[in-house]
């Protein structure tokens, strides 16, 4: 019997505990282990953070760690000493930490192990949050551990407690959930599948599982004007308008192009100022590219590439009376660089700000539900779960059938927050933005409609 007890004790000392506390901040000198530090891979900045051991907002034991920030971009603290069990972090599946914050915000955790980084960038709500994500299965011991916050205010405080690892696979993970598609492997992809709906197609009954499936279903519907010089496209669209007037004598044409006349039938010489657009410099994974993410509002060209670094565009269509019959609509893009390819368009559901759009935010301190607005579910998604336009860019120009898109924004049911345009990642092109020097280089939407 005695032998059995000894064996059991031995066995249990080698078995992995279901949950392992990594930092609990209970020791009297717990705060002294943390000091402000620049984060590898991020642009160096002067960091001022006060770390204190406090009783407020403790979620485990009696104490939590309170951090007080003094502004900064992504200021962080680093642990001077790591727990003795740092060699076995990689045996666990899930990372968890309790974080209490005063507003919707973003905090991040980062470990360096071997030659790799693991970063969890978490979008939090005001109050207590439990940050949950998959932890990488790795044999290398943890070498460094950081905790930081994105763009904290002067004097902003947050509380952290019970940083732990568990052997159980999480049921859900904390947004941003799409930040590390390369690092997280197959287990993360299972989460992604649950989060991505079937997309509706152009207001009809068809759906598509993804952008490649969408292309397959739209094949053959490309406008043959794609690639033609813009003057030729304009002439063809003008002819089409004259044809439509034969059956719809009240039909009007509005051309929405920044700095150009012709959008307001009541004031034909008035120049259009209702366009906005912006893009991103870089895509995920965050652990590799975190320091490169930048907003490129004001650039003369926009990259047409993948969903993770796609441009946003928006045209004010308010001169079209709500409920008008949309007879025809085309988006025409002038290309600065080809070769181009097919692209999909989703309607945005957030009032984004040109100079403030990042992969985390649609405007300053306003966060996407998920990174890059990869949120299509529920009543208030970042983007509506539908492809509202399709078209191709080819050498000089791109042309997109925007009839369903314009209907979407003028039916009185949806606010017009513009759209995002992207391909499957195989297509590469640069289109001129509304900041292009020549007016005729700028994007334009041609709409023929009959006001009701
Ligand atoms: Ca504690």
Topology:
Blueprint: H1 2-14, E1 19-23, E2 34-37, E3 49-54, E4 64-70, E5 76-79, E6 94-101, E7 105-113, E8 116-124, E9 127-134, E10 142-149, E11 154-166, H2 181-195, E12 199-201, E13 207-208, H3 211-218, H4 230-247, E14 252-257, E15 275-278, H5 286-289, E16 301-304, E17 312-315, E18 325-347, E19 361-363, E20 366-367, E21 386-387, E22 389-394, E23 397-401, H6 403-410, E24 419-422, E25 428-432, E26 444-450
The structure holds calcium ion.
Short description:
15% of the residues lie in helices and 36% in strands.
What does this structure look like?
- This protein is an alpha+beta fold.
- It folds into two domains: 16-174, Sandwich (Jelly Rolls); 199-450, no CATH class.
- It contains six helices and 26 strands.
- It starts with a helix and ends with a strand.
- Bound molecules: calcium ion (CA).
- Residues 24-26, 58, 60-61, 63-64, 161-162 line the site of calcium ion.
- Calcium ion (CA) is lined by residues 24-26, 58, 60-61, 63-64, 161-162.
């Amino acid at each position: 019997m005695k032998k059995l007890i000894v064996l059991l004790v031995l066995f249990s000392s080698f078995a992995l505990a279901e949950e392992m506390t990594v930092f609990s901040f209970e020791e009297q000198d717990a705060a002294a282990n943390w000091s402000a530090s620049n984060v590898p891979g991020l642009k160096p900045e002067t960091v001022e953070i006060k770390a204190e051991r406090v009783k407020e907002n403790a979620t485990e034991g009696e104490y939590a760690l309170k951090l007080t920030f003094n502004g900064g971009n992504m200021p962080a603290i680093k642990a001077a000493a790591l727990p003795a069990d740092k060699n076995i972090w990689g045996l666990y599946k899930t990372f968890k930490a309790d974080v209490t914050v005063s507003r919707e915000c973003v905090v991040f955790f980062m470990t360096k192990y071997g030659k790799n980084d693991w970063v969890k960038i978490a979008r939090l709500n005001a109050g207590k949050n439990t940050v949950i994500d998959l932890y990488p299965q790795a044999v290398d011991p943890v070498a460094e551990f950081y905790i930081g916050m994105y763009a904290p205010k002067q004097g902003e405080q947050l509380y952290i407690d019970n940083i732990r690892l568990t052997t159980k696979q999480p049921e859900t993970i904390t947004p941003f959930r799409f930040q590390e598609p390369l690092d997280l492997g197959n287990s993360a992809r299972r989460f992604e599948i649950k989060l991505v709906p079937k997309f509706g197609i152009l207001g009809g009954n068809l759906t598509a599982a993804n952008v490649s499936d969408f292309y397959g279903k739209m094949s053959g519907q490309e406008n043959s004007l794609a690639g033609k010089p813009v003057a030729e496209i304009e002439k063809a669209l003008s002819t089409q308008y004259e044809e439509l007037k034969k059956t719809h004598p009240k039909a009007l044409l509005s051309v929405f192009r920044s700095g150009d006349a012709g959008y307001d039938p009541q004031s034909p010489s008035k120049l259009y100022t209702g366009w906005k657009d912006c893009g991103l410099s870089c895509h995920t994974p965050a652990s590799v590219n975190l320091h490169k993410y930048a907003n490129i509002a004001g650039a003369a060209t926009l990259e047409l590439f993948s969903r993770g670094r796609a441009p946003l565009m928006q045209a004010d269509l308010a001169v079209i009376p709500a409920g008008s019959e949309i007879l025809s609509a085309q988006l025409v893009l002038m290309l600065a660089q080809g070769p181009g390819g097919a692209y999909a368009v989703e309607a945005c559901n957030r009032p984004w700000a040109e100079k403030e759009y990042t992969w985390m935010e649609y405007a300053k301190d306003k966060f996407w539900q998920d990174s890059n607005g990869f949120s299509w579910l529920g009543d208030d998604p970042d983007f509506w779960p539908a492809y509202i336009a399709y078209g191709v860019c080819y050498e000089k120009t791109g042309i997109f059938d925007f009839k369903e898109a314009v209907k979407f924004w003028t039916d009185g049911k949806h606010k017009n927050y513009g759209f995002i345009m992207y391909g499957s990642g195989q297509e590469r092109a640069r289109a001129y933005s509304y900041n292009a020097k020549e007016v005729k280089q700028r994007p334009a939407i041609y709409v023929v409609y009959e006001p009701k």
